[in-house]
């Protein structure tokens, strides 16, 4: 099974980027094997996370977990500036303490929601101060640069977690209802055989219209999106310790060889290796939970 869905593998424990884009492009829905902090600074951009789409404003800050599908759509050729920071779980755990779990803002909320806040000018300046410290020290070979990078990153994560603890921001969501309902239908029937004909019957719409709208707003074909969702379910089941055969059929695959091939292509390792890695992580990476009130 071919797929234009992709799993973007982040190699370093900390990947800091501050790009300025002056041309129009859009990305397909994808995931990383790392957490992501995304700060929007300027441009005309729509940011998609799972079932939601946000028209971005300067000072919008998103936190994205490895499980959340996301993409950007640059609407025009206006200069697009943002800061993205990708963090491996092991790295954030090393910065955390027994009393301060710096992964809280990523993990302790429902997938696809509660992951955006809007910073006022004072908060934005605070965040930019720490991102400048990271930017200056991350690529430096000077003595102590790594320690300075880690210290700045810890300070930044503390701020972000504090802001998300008291998040009451209600963002504008412009995801078309048809696309959202299609995603919800797929989620509810992910272990079953899903066809365009079923969707057309469910929504009383032409199957071509559904397919085109879905591709326009996700950058993916329905086939690729369904495959990606099944792979994510398989990853969860593997983490829970189910056998690979059970995972294959309980995540909606009807052919074992196709499951192994598709999983390995998208995730980058076989289901067996993924299970071993996740079980090892769970043994060494447990942190106390932080409740948000």
Overview of this protein structure:
The radius of gyration is 20 Å and the shape is globular. Helix 3 (121-138) packs antiparallel against helix 4 and helix 6 (196-203) crosses helix 7 (207-218). By secondary structure, it is α+β, with helices and mostly antiparallel strands. It is built from eleven helices and eleven strands. The strands form three sheets. Strands 2, 3, 5, 8, 10 and 11 form a six-stranded antiparallel beta sheet that branches. The N and C termini lie far apart (45 Å). Mean pLDDT is 89; it is low at 289-293. The protein has helices spanning 89-95, 104-107, 121-138, 145-165, 177-188, 196-203, 207-218, 222-239, 244-250, 256-267, 271-284; strands at 6-8, 14-17, 20-21, 30-32, 35-42, 45-49, 52-55, 60-64, 70-74, 80-87, 116-118. This is Helix-turn-helix transcriptional regulator. Residues 180-277 form the HTH araC/xylS-type domain. InterPro entries: AraC-bd (IPR003313), Homeodomain-like_sf (IPR009057), HTH-like (IPR037923), HTH_AraC (IPR018060), HTH_AraC-typ_CS (IPR018062), RmlC-like_jellyroll (IPR014710).
Number of discrete helical segments:
11
| Proportion of beta-strand residues | 15-25%
Largest beta-sheet characterization: 6 strands, antiparallel
- The gyration radius over C-alpha positions equals 20 Å
* Average pLDDT figure: 89
Shape: globular
């Amino acid at each position: 099974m071919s797929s234009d869905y992709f799993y973007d593998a982040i190699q370093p424990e900390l990947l800091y980027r501050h790009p300025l884009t002056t041309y129009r492009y859009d990305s397909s829905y994808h995931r990383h094997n790392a957490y992501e902090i995304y700060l929007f600074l300027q441009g005309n951009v729509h940011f998609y996370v799972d079932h939601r789409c946000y028209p971005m404003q300067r000072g919008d800050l998103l936190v994205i977990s490895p499980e959340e599908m996301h993409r950007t759509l640059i609407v025009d050729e206006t200069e697009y500036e943002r800061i993205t920071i990708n963090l491996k779980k092991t790295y954030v755990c090393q910065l955390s303490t027994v009393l301060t779990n710096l992964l809280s803002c990523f993990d302790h909320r429902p997938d696809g929601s509660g992951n955006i806040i809007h910073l006022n000018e004072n908060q934005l300046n605070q965040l930019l101060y720490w991102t400048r410290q990271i930017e200056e020290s991350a690529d430096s070979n000077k003595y102590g640069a790594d320690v300075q990078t880690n210290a700045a990153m810890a300070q930044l994560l503390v701020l972000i977690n504090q802001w998300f603890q008291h998040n009451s921001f209600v963002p504008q969501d412009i995801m078309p209802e048809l696309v959202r309902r299609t995603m919800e239908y797929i989620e509810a029937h992910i272990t079953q055989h899903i066809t365009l004909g079923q969707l057309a019957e469910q929504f009383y719409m032409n199957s071509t219209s559904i397919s085109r709208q879905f591709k326009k707003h996700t950058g993916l074909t329905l086939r690729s999106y369904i495959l990606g969702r099944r792979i994510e379910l398989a990853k969860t089941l593997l983490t829970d310790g189910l056998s690979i055969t059970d995972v294959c059929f309980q995540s909606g695959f009807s052919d074992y060889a196709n499951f192994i091939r598709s999983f390995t292509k998208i995730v980058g390792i076989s289901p067996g290796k993924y299970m071993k890695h996740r079980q090892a992580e769970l043994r060494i990476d447990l942190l106390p939970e932080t409740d948000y009130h």
